[in-house]
Amino acid sequence: MIVVLTIAAGLIYVERRLLALFQDRRGPNRVGPFGVLQVVADMVKIFFKEDWIPPFADKAVFIMAPGILIISIFLTFAVIPFTDTFLVLDSNIGLLFFLGNSSLGVYSVVLGGWASNNKYSLLGAIRASAQMLTYEVFMGLSLVGVVMMADSFSLREIVLAQKGGWFVIPQFLGFLTFLIAGIAETHRAPFDIPEADGELVAGYHSEYSGMKFGMFFVGEYMGVTMISALITTLFLGGWLGPEFLPPAFWFFFKTGFFICLFILIRASLPRPRYDQLMEAGWKVLLPLVLLNILVTGAVLLFKHTS
Amino acid sequence: MNTIFYITAAVAIIASLMAITNKNAIHALLYLILTLLSISVIFYTLGAPFIAALEVIVYAGAIMVLFIFVVMMLNVGLQEEVENRWLTPRKFLIPSLLAAILLILFMIALKDFRFENHPAIDVAPKEVGISLFTTYLIAVELSAILLLAGIVGAYHLGKQKKKVTHRFLVKQARIKK
Predict the structure, then answer these.
(1) Rounded CA gap, B99 and B86, in Å?
(2) Same-domain check for residues B96 and B17
(3) Cβ contact (<8 Å) for B69 and A106?
(4) What are the pLDDT tens digits along chain A (306 aa)?
(5) Which of B82, B97, B125 lies at the terminal end of a domain, its last residue?
(6) Domain shared by B38 and B73, yes or no
(7) CATH number assigned to the domain comprising residue B31
(8) CA A298 to chain centre
(9) Which of A110, A221, B57, B82 has its Cβ near the most Cβ atoms within 10 Å?
């Protein structure tokens, strides 16, 4: 748990430096060597900030919302196998557990926006709920191909099934759609329409301050870490890799690669319009995913009979 | 195992009571979600992890989000007055009578039920899938057709002429004509 939190906090620094690199700037470089301590300074600042709850907000729900986000993401890390032996829970419904948690994560955004009792927050929450529901549909469907090939919902067995070859090659369509759905699910740029600052101030967390905002902020980075770790396990063979380095290294290396990819995507792509986002989801990605399932099923059936 | 069951069952009952009695629509929905989550825990302890996961994904994760979405859009807050006008005690009479009959029947049916005769068996996701697509195939197909009908109906209700809302696009549409 502490590891995940540290990674998430460290990511804020990495993101700012990488974004600066991509955009030909310097980024934070004053606090500590290479500005590493910038995040620590920010954290101290955010802890001591006044934690203000607006008088017009729905207090109980307002406080609960950021907690739901953090809990749902932390619970997902329980089923991710870091190596063959280093994992918290090897469940035969591991993948469904992740999907259930990600669908509960929607509540944090929706309730946070609603409880703020502010029209920009509410608009952000409505956008977020529609977007996340849409992308959840084919997030689940894009994993069906993987499950069919691995013959199990258990993430450990899915990794073990990739000994002969990573699923990213036979399941390339599934991989692509899962990546896109993952970005949308963590509502990062370019899919950060629920918090589009040009239109909605800060979307659903406009009214949040202090550590509650910090939880939303860190939760986003934890979500990125989680999606990257899941892509690694599901499509890139998890801890599998050449023998000369320990399996844990391979896992963290691949995860780190995807985290950097997420940051690069944020740095380089513009935000789509809202209806474009929904249309792309329902009219392009959903048929693609269904096609992927059909082809995978046909190929597996052919292999099975011959 | 039994203590877990009793605790979650108590949570489910309290949460559903709160869901009916709460006057704030969103709070009531949140309690309903809590009920669904505790029911999912009960399914898990009874040896049906697949159903437990589906309960969370489908009910708590998808359907209830839609409920909250609609409540948010309609901005249903405290609606005591309307409720007091619509829901008079007399209207509760017949439904409660019918529910009481059901309860009595259920108790009679449960009288000879012993948990020892029905031990919890772990049902793996695979077995659920196999039985769905062999024994209960017709039911699955029928529900698929029902869903299709629902989609077609929703499409028909939601269909409308394409409207151009942005002034820039309006200008462009005029130029095209």
Answers:
(1) 20
(2) yes
(3) no
(4) 666 666 666 666 666 666 666 666 666 666 666 666 667 777 777 777 777 777 777 777 777 888 888 888 878 877 777 776 666 666 777 788 888 888 888 888 888 777 777 777 777 777 777 788 788 888 888 888 888 777 777 777 777 777 777 777 777 788 888 888 888 877 776 777 666 666 666 667 666 776 777 777 777 777 888 888 888 888 877 777 776 777 777 777 788 888 888 877 877 777 777 777 777 778 888 888 888 888 888 888 888 777
(5) B125
(6) yes
(7) 1.20.120.1200
(8) 31
(9) A110
Interface residue ranges in chain B relative to chain A, Cβ cutoff 8 Å: 24, 26-27, 30, 33, 49-50, 52-54, 56-57, 60-62, 65-66, 68-69, 72-73, 124-125
CA distance B61 to chain A (A): 5
Q: Residue A26 and residue A24: Cα distance in Å, rounded? A: 7
Same structural domain, B77 and B149: no
Cβ-Cβ contacts under 8 Å between A and B: the total is 72
User: How many domains, chain B?
Assistant: 2
Q: Is the ipTM of this complex over 0.85?
A: no
The CA distance from A81 to the nearest CA of chain B, in Å, is: 19
Query: Coil, strand or helix: which one is B78?
Result: strand
Partners of A119 on chain B (C-beta within 8 Å) are none
Asked if the structure places residue B130 within a domain, the reply is no
- Long-range contacts formed by B82-88: CB under 8 A, 24+ apart: B83/B23
Q: Is residue B131 situated within a structural domain?
A: no
Tokens of A111: 């309730």
Alpha-carbon radius of gyration of chain B: 23
pTM (whole model) above 0.90: no
* Residues A182 and A259 sit within 8 Å (Cβ to Cβ): no
Residues B64 and B99 both lie in one domain:
yes
Q: Which domain holds residue B151?
A: 136-177
